[in-house]
Amino acid sequence: MRTQVAIIGAGPAGLMLGRLLELAGIEAVIIERRSADYVLSRIRAGVLEQGSMALMDRAGVSSRMHKQGLLHEGIELSFDGERHRIDFSALIGRQVMVYGQTEMTRDLMDARAASGALTIYEADDVQLHDFDGATPHVTYRRNGVTQRLDCAVIAGCDGYHGISRQSVPQQALTTFERVYPFGWLGVLVDQPPVAHELIYAHHERGFALCSMRSPSRSRYYVQVPADEQVAAWSDQRFWDELRLRLDPQTAASLVTGPAIEKSIAPLRSFVAEPLRFGALFLAGDAAHIVPPTGAKGLNLAMSDVGSLADALIEWFVEHSPAGINAYSTQVLQRIWKAERFSWWMTSLLHTFPETGPFGRRIQRAEFDYLRGSLAAQQSLAENYVGLE
Ligand code: FAS
Ligand code: PHB
């Protein structure tokens, strides 16, 4: 089998890239390790930047997002029970959209299925070959039979644990990583959100986040030690701990219920450089990871594939290599700005026992500065809604 672009991974990055290429008349085959149902079962991001919303419009898959998504004009920061609202609209005239990654992935999957473009699910032992040579190709095993897909370009959209980045010779890659000493225990519950907007709470017991998926479905997180086990957290223990980390008024308004999903996500900052190796291009979590505190992970993946699609369209349609040659440098500049903001939000809002009382005083000063400075609030706002 032969195609123009072999995309590894049918997460949001792979599906969005496939859609943008298809609309430009460029053929792409997506090879995914898991089943479509498994991909949809993963509960992940919840907030879209305007750039991601625009990409959904460009991909022609945004009607449900505009109908069901919740436009948010700000967020609340809570510091030891004191709340301060960051008003995006007043500060920078822009907003974000609350629309779950699961729904976005479903929209992209449905569009791909409707167009008949090929996605190979449940592909085992995916291997990348000769992406630095004349015959780039991918092999995989399905139903026990090994298949080969020849292509001109391979797009590695297979996430942090994928095969693409691991296929690059060690000496050709430089990685930068910070692993945080904690994770996020997340709960999904079919109850109305505790507030109209997201609440990011810093408390001496640890960070908490009150988010949502719809007016009737909420998403909550608490910071837990990096080695914490989900089994140690009954629903009741989660709700009790969450209340302790919120201001009294919010804690009293919390509507709890049985968790329909409960999981722990580790937190790390990670970047691989460069993002291109001959015919192989890395995008999304395959290239970088951010702690979810800044709501950047999914949005960064979207901006990567928006740039990669433009570069590949320029290459295949206009036969100009300018975009593909500039891809890595251009996209890494944006990645590092998102890494910085996600690290900063994480440093501000989580407890770091190792930094002791001095560290907490610095966090308090940072919050007081934010509360009193329009410039500081504008900086947070423009980073959160997405740098243009
Ligand atoms: P993905 O990991 O989503 O998709 C990669 C795909 O490649 C997967 O379907 C995988 O099965 C497939 N794959 C892997 N190896 C393969 C192989 N060898 N062959 C073929 N296919 C292979 N971001 C936020 O903005 N906010 C959040 O709250 C948030 N929460 C998160 C919670 C968790 C537990 C995790 C892990 C991430 C979270 N993220 C969050 C980040 C997340 O949303 C990612 O940024 C987003 O999924 C990136 O999309 P992709 O790059 O497509 O990678
Ligand atoms: C979520 O709703 O899952 C969510 C929202 C904002 C974040 C992280 C996660 O920063």
From TrEMBL:
Its EC number is 1.14.13.2. GO terms for molecular function: 4-hydroxybenzoate 3-monooxygenase activity; FAD binding. Keywords: FAD, Flavoprotein, Monooxygenase, Oxidoreductase. It comes from the Bacteria. Pfam families: FAD_binding_3. One of its GO terms (biological process) is benzoate catabolic process. Coiled coil: none annotated. Residues 2-342 form the FAD-binding domain. Gene3D superfamilies: D-Amino Acid Oxidase, subunit A, domain 2 (3.30.9.10), FAD/NAD(P)-binding domain (3.50.50.60). Transmembrane segments: none annotated. It is an enzyme of class 1 (oxidoreductase). InterPro entries: FAD-bd, FAD/NAD-bd_sf, HB_mOase, RIFMO-like. This is 4-hydroxybenzoate 3-monooxygenase. It comes from Devosia limi DSM 17137.
